[in-house]
Amino acid sequence: EGKMAARLSHGENRLVSLPLSRIRVIMKSSPEVSSINQDALFLTAKATELFVQYLAAYSYKHGRGKEKNALTYSDLSHTAEECETFQFLAEILPKKILASKYLKMLEKEKREGEVGEEDEEEGEEEDEDKT
């Protein structure tokens, strides 16, 4: 075990804010992970913490929340959509919409999906006629 891990296990000088036990659970949820080195756990926790801080600071600086001296969900979702660095988060932080609007979108997708399936079936019948 490295010096970082030793420091953490003795409870001295807390170097990360995130709970290591939770991060260990998340890491172990991956089927490729069989064991987790204590230093790897610490570094993953610290990197995650720094990433979240960067995301929050960037979103606050470029968002509207600073007008109210607050970081808002809209600031975060806007950052995920507009900043190339954070676009991988766009599905995790979608734009905030009303539930009624979301239900209408789902209904529309369902209707369009049914139309698409009918078109596919017709295409298959045409293929059978040709053979």
Automatic annotation (TrEMBL):
UniProt KW keywords: Acetylation, Coiled coil, DNA-binding, Nucleotidyltransferase, Nucleus, Phosphoprotein, Transferase
Phosphoprotein is among the record's keywords: yes
Domain Transcription factor CBF/NF-Y/archaeal histone span(s) in chain numbering: 17-78
InterPro entries the UniProt entry points to: CBFA_NFYB_domain, Histone-fold, Transcr_DNA_Rep_Reg
Protein source organism: Turnix velox (Little buttonquail)
Keyword Ion transport listed: no
Biased composition (Acidic residues): 115-131
Protein name per Swiss-Prot or TrEMBL: Chromatin accessibility complex protein 1
